[in-house]
What does this fold into?
Amino acid sequence: MEAILAFLFGLLAGSFLNVCIHRWPRGRSVVKPRSHCVRCRQTIAWYDNIPLVSYARAERPLPPLRQAHFSALSAGGAGHRAAVFLFS
It folds into this structure.
């Protein structure tokens, strides 16, 4: 159970860091405006912000997942999971 929680926390942390990496160099806030599609500027629903889960949804076409974003999320999840195993 600890490993699953650590992985989920890592996904959340990785997702937030991706937002910071994308917005801070452009002088934007990480709080407002809400997440939006970079192509059409449409606001993204809260459930489409769930890391990795939203990309598995097939209800509507989403912009293609960039490999760097997927790698950062996966590394965040795996890194937190590994830390739990190493330090517990």
Notes: The two ends are 13 Å apart (CA to CA). Residues 2-87 form one domain. The chain has one domain: 2-87. The mean pLDDT is 76.
